[in-house]
Design goal:
Blueprint lengths: L4 H7 L4 E3 L2 H4 L3 H5 L8 H4 L3 E3 L1 H4 L4 H15 L6
Parallel strand pairs: 1-2
Length: about 80
């Protein structure tokens, strides 16, 4: 799904998860440098992360680690 820059700014995400970081060459730095994105909460708070596929490309045990990592990003209070 794609949305316009205007809609992205209106939604103002707290966190950005890069779905194409592994294959598309998108980096945290390239996202932070995008025109118009500097005002987003996720950019200001440095809450931009590569996708789960970059955390673990291995078999099932690796996916568990990746899902746990995502859960920790979304709900850090549950992992104190």
């Amino acid at each position: 799904m794609q949305i316009s820059l205007e809609e992205l700014i209106a939604r103002d995400p707290d966190l950005i998860l890069l779905g194409d970081a592994l294959w598309g060459g998108v980096t945290v730095e390239s996202v932070k440098a995008r025109a118009g994105w500097e005002g987003l909460t996720a950019v200001q708070d440095e809450q931009i992360f590569p996708s789960m596929t970059t955390w673990s490309a291995g078999p099932a045990p690796g996916w568990w680690t990746a899902w746990r990592g995502l859960a920790r990003l979304l709900h850090p209070d549950l992992f104190d």
